[in-house]
Amino acid sequence: MTTQTLGKDNLSNTPDIDGEKNLGGLGGLSGLENTPELNGVAGDLVQDPDLEARRQFTYEAGEKLKRRVDWHLLPLLILAYLVKNMDGNVVSYVKVMNSGKSTNVLKELDISTDQWADMSTIFTVFFFIFEIPSNLIIKWSTPRLHFVRIMGSWSIVVACTAAVKSMGGLFACRALLGAFEAGLYPGILYQLACWYRPDEIAIRMSALGLLGQFSGIIDALLAFAYIDGKGGLSGWRWCYLILGLLGFVVTLLIFLFLPDWPDSPPSRRQFLTPEEGTFFAARLPPNSARSTDLNFDWGAIKKELKSPILYGFALIQMLFASGVTGLSFWLPTVIAGFGLTSTANSQLLNIPPALPTATPRR
């Protein structure tokens, strides 16, 4: 039977769906089963476990549940992203910290300005190399353990940076930092895709990017603090030590409280009942990632690699990252070079440019 045969006359003779505008409460399924033209289609709907799970919650209950998931998931992911930005960008602030003094990082480690620029390149190269391999691991692990692994690793590297004695040691720490930080942002995107529908992700990524920009403000305040010489350590060493300890604290919070997947065992998402977890997983599109999906669909990967949309987004991201990375790395040096105020106070002048990026706009 063609689609045209299933016309308005056929459906209007089905009392259970007469006037039904959508499947909301699915009250018309019994009528569908008794309609010869739809026999079999309704049976598939009734036997669909995802559809049955969605029927257990009203729209209002689903929205309330979604807000509860937001409060248990987003704050921890935002904290992780904030710390990642702080650890990666503080290098630009410590460069001008105590400029002209023996405790300046360039003086202590005997590094030229050109060598300092090379250090940024090393970080980016290792970040690029390890981004995909790092996120392949999440398929055989869980988001919680994945983030704990990479955050714990880079927090160790950041803390150890406070102890380097040479240019080679600093370069090695920057390379390792790039390798370990590479998996965070794609991992966050992957976990959000496991919890939210595509139309729900954009607003949450906006919140992530918005609050993540506070890293520049915090780094500037940390570099401004009068901590040089305390405990016999240079100010730049204190910056790395403090950020390393902060990273360990956030890592512990993620280990204790970050949920894995909607369909994880209840012990890994204690704020949801089994029915709520099943509902949240059932509301996702069929191609969403699941905790039980441990294999790769190479056919889908090849298809995406042929899509011009993919390369369009890649170009946009590349242009965006080029501007943001260059600005974040060199802005403190440029501002300090103006000589408008003392080196310490020039750190505070990095805050106004960061404020617009951390301000919500419509």
Automatic annotation (TrEMBL):
Record-linked PROSITE patterns: MFS
UniProt entry tagged with the keyword Transport: yes
GO CC list: membrane
The keyword Transmembrane is annotated on this UniProt entry: yes
InterPro entries with a match to the protein in the record: MFS, MFS_dom, MFS_trans_sf
Compositional bias annotation for Polar residues: 1-15
Membrane-related topology note: Multi-pass membrane protein
Domain Major facilitator superfamily (MFS) profile: residue ranges: 73-362
A Gene Ontology molecular function term of the record: transmembrane transporter activity
Coiled-coil segments on the chain, per record: none
Compartments (UniProt record): Membrane
Keywords in alphabetical order: Membrane, Transmembrane, Transmembrane helix, Transport
Region annotation (Disordered) ranges: 1-29
Transmembrane segments: 73-96, 116-138, 145-164, 176-196, 208-227, 239-258, 309-331
Pfam families in the record: MFS_1
Protein name (record): Major facilitator superfamily domain-containing protein
Species per Swiss-Prot/TrEMBL record: Naematelia encephala
